[in-house]
Write a structure and sequence with these properties.
It comes from Pristionchus mayeri. By secondary structure, this protein is an alpha+beta fold. Helices cover about 65% and strands about 10% of the residues. It contains nine helices and seven strands; from the N terminus they run ααααααααββαβββββ. The strands form two sheets. A five-stranded antiparallel beta sheet has the order 6-5-4-3-7. The chain has a two-stranded antiparallel ribbon with strand order 1-2. A hairpin with a 2-residue loop joins strand 5 (about 340-345) and strand 6 (about 350-355). The N and C termini lie far apart (about 95 Å).
Length: about 350
């Protein structure tokens, strides 16, 4: 009991001394121990890292879940997973459900009902792809960043507070030593008590406080230097996030392109269903002839020169972006998708859709 009382009294004295020292520094321009420039730079980098990382985390959360109410729920991160039975539908899945119900109501035999059912199926795919994007981003990007903020960053801030307290203790001891020397007529080795404290005692306190401050400085410095490792880890997280986005948008592009082709064969004009017009049929016939000519030209397995007839922006990693009127080398590989050819330009190669070129 006596030990606990002494400890509480010591803690209270320490808090009082720190508060007094902080007040003198703030309002009376008291002397304080300055940290070296390198250490100050590390502290500034840690503050900037925490600030930008929190903003980054918030923006990614908003991107993955635009609904602020859901983001405020305690189980937000548990819901950022692939779809489970009974889980909330996302917006694309809700759209798919509405279109499917409408299509069934109007009938699959009608052009409108048939189109609704086709679009509903694609929207359902997009909804699933979005769930996969959210799940991957949550596991590979959000959670690692959040663990850094809740773990490493909190530890750094905790040790910084301890360092600040140790620095106040050291400066308070230095202040008491200065006052003891002034009261003793600045006599080295004087033993005249000043407020119950001799110069020897004050110097001993300074040595102890300096040792504790130096030790805490090293601990905090090691943690601050670890920020670079955190940057490297978060770089991987951002790369994984971009990979997940790339996969999602590539799948979405492919699904919508397939849907567009599926819907383009039928038009509804003034209530009457008509297939493609004479002009469209002629254009399709010319297109088929052109593609047939390309297939025949590349059938020997060799390379040919081709001119780009439309701009094309690569969607997947193995594709090549080309521009109108560029002349490129094209060829086909065994087992390759018949809608694509391999293209090469200035040593860079990749797939492009066959309909974007004509053989020179």
């Amino acid at each position: 009991m006596d030990f606990n009382f002494k400890k509480l009294a010591s803690d209270a004295t320490g808090l009082f001394n720190r508060a007094k020292q902080y007040t003198e520094e703030t309002f009376l321009k008291g002397e304080k121990t300055e940290l070296d420039p390198h250490f100050e730079a590390l502290l500034q980098r840690a503050d900037k890292t925490e600030d930008h990382t929190r903003r980054l985390l918030s923006c990614i959360e908003s991107y993955l879940q635009p609904n602020p109410t859901v983001r405020m729920e305690d189980v937000f991160y548990e819901k950022l997973e692939l779809r489970k039975e009974g889980s909330r539908m996302n917006n694309l899945e809700s759209l798919a459900t509405a279109m499917c119900e409408a299509g069934e109501e109007f009938g699959a035999a009608t052009p409108y009902g048939s189109a609704l059912l086709k679009v509903a199926a694609t929207q359902q795919k997009l909804g699933q792809h979005e769930r996969e994007l959210v799940g991957q981003a949550a596991q590979q990007t959000l959670l690692p960043i959040k663990r850094f903020l809740d773990g490493d960053m909190k530890t750094i801030q905790k040790e910084r507070k301890v360092l600040h307290a140790k620095r106040l203790d050291l400066d308070a001891c230095k202040s008491r030593l200065r006052k003891a020397k002034q009261a003793d007529g600045i006599q080295a080795g004087g033993s005249k008590p000043v407020g119950g404290l001799t110069i020897e005692q004050a110097e001993a306190e300074v040595r102890v406080a300096q040792a504790e401050f130096d030790k805490q400085t090293e601990i905090t410095k090691l943690l601050l230097e670890g920020i670079q490792t955190a940057h490297n880890n978060q770089l991987k997280c951002i790369r994984d996030f971009v990979e997940a986005q790339l996969s999602f948008y590539a799948q979405a592009h492919q699904s919508l392109a397939d849907l567009q082709r599926d819907l383009s064969g039928t038009l509804v004009i003034r209530g009457a269903t008509v297939t493609t017009t004479v002009v469209e049929r002629a254009a399709n016939g010319e297109k088929k002839k052109s593609l047939t000519g390309i297939y025949a030209a590349l059938s020997d397995g060799g390379t040919k020169q081709a001119r780009v007839i439309m701009d094309y922006d690569a969607v997947l990693r193995d594709e090549l972006s080309v521009r109108l009127n560029e002349v490129i080398i094209v060829y086909r590989l065994p087992g390759m998708d018949e809608d694509f050819v391999m293209a090469e330009r200035a040593g860079v190669r990749g797939r492009i859709p066959i309909e974007y070129i004509e053989i020179v």
